[in-house]
Design brief:
There is one protein chain. Helix content is about 30%, strand content about 20%. The protein is of the alpha+beta class. The protein has a domain at about 70-275 and about 295-370: DD-peptidase/beta-lactamase superfamily (Beta-lactamase, 3-Layer(aba) Sandwich), CATH 3.40.710.10. Helix 2 runs antiparallel to helix 13, helix 3 packs parallel to helix 7 and helix 3 crosses helix 8 (about 205-215). It is globular.
Length: about 400
């Protein structure tokens, strides 16, 4: 019996995934490459490896190609902080100012472009606000307000810029919040602050803390904050979408800033890694905190992480002020570093209650389905992630091949 059938999947239907990716995206030149890993019960039952990791030089995609993970870094940083929560070193309801005293008097934007007119927040920012993006912080790329304009001016999110994580925290102390903590959901630098808290509470630089707490135990041998010398031949090119379904080179892998360690260790978007490495991380979460004998988190901690923490049990369409406020988020809340499906029919795609996921700016994605014991990782390198509905399409294709359900 084949591995797919053994784990309840139709092999014929799984083959649709490769055809779909090749005919819709890779073949017509809409994406440089596509790697998709689908696992059930911890076993890989399907892998797609299509296109080129470096189209300019004709280098084909390999199963160990190294990608920019961008925001798929966020769940990793949040897991690291949760390991510290489990040790009793920090709590989700702690005020952030307990660890960042210079943030004690952050005000909420009222008017101005600096000097700012502000009002006091209704309540102090808590650690949980950082993990669920209800902190009142923002991202410069939101292009909506005077506050995110100030982020752009200061180049707050520049991983390969001039400042480090400590300086970023000091710069944020001088800027107002977009809203009072807990009042709305706004995609933001919050997870970079989570990374700072990991550093501060563990007493170790973020890269070292992640290595010791996550990468080494899970044998994630290809994940880190820059591309090592021995990985250079496997590093992918990154593209951005161009008019007419075309793409243009955004980051040449032979000249990329990722070839050197960054000044800013970004818990929000700084990691590079392989699909196989990320599958190990995601499978650990599907397994409620354990993989191959390595226990990263307790089962109840993963359950807490993968619960909807948005105030009032709302979904993202109701609470979001972000670019991410869109109809495809109906029935989806937000947990501690991951989006969470809490009303599956509202999503209008096949999925499970309690499924959780996230993605990265270069159209990468992963999901964990504890009900069906399914874990999936998709890698490509195309900015921005909103260019195509690939994530929804892959879920539909994958679950259309699932013949024997547990849920």
């Amino acid at each position: 019996m084949g591995k797919a059938k053994q784990h309840g999947f139709s092999k014929d239907r799984l083959q649709r995934i490769d055809r779909f990716l090749q005919e819709k995206y890779v073949g017509p030149g809409r994406m440089p490459c596509a790697q998709f890993l689908l696992a059930r019960d911890g076993e890989v039952i399907h892998q797609s490896v299509l296109g080129h990791q470096d189209p300019e030089r004709g280098v084909k995609l390999a199963d160990d190609t190294v990608y920019r993970l961008y925001s798929m870094t966020k769940p990793v940083a949040c897991v690291a902080l949760l390991t510290l929560v489990e040790e009793g070193l920090i709590a989700l309801d702690d005020p952030v100012a307990k660890y960042i005293p210079e943030w004690a008097n952050l005000g909420v934007f009222s008017a101005g472009v600096g000097p700012w007119l502000t009002t006091p927040p209704a309540r102090p920012m808590q650690v949980v606000d950082l993990m669920r993006h209800t902190s009142g912080l923002t991202y410069g790329f939101q292009n909506r307000t005077n506050v995110d304009a100030a982020y752009r001016k200061l180049k707050l999110e520049a991983m390969h810029g001039e400042h480090n994580l400590e300086v970023m925290i000091q710069m944020l102390a001088k800027l107002p919040l977009e809203f009072s903590p807990g009042e709305a959901w706004n995609y933001s630098v919050s997870t970079d602050v989570v990374g700072y808290l990991v550093q501060k509470v563990s007493g170790k630089p973020l890269d070292q803390a992640l290595q010791e707490r996550i990468f080494d135990p899970l044998k994630m041998v290809d994940t880190g904050f820059h591309v090592r010398e021995d990985q250079r031949a496997r590093f992918s090119a990154c593209y951005e979408a161009a008019p007419g379904g075309k793409m243009k080179l955004q980051d040449d892998p032979t000249k990329s800033p990722y070839l050197a360690p960054p000044k800013l260790l970004s818990g929000g978007g700084g990691l590079v890694g392989t699909a196989a490495d990320y599958l190990r991380f995601a499978t650990m979460l599907t397994n409620r905190g354990e993989l191959d004998g390595a226990r990263i988190l307790a089962p109840k901690t993963v359950d807490l992480m993968a619960s909807n923490h948005l105030p009032g049990g709302q979904d993202l369409t109701e609470l979001s002020r972000s670019l991410f406020s869109e109809s495809t988020n109906a029935g989806v809340g937000f947990g501690l570093g991951v989006a969470v499906v809490f009303d599956a029919p509202q999503t209008l795609i096949p999925c499970s209650q309690g499924e959780f996921y996230w993605g990265g700016a270069a159209s990468t994605a992963f999901w964990c389905d504890p009900v069906e014991q399914v874990t999936a990782v998709f890698m490509t390198q195309l900015l921005p992630s909103s260019t195509y509905p690939i994530r929804r399409e892959l879920r539909t294709l994958a679950y259309s091949a699932l013949m024997e359900t547990y849920g």
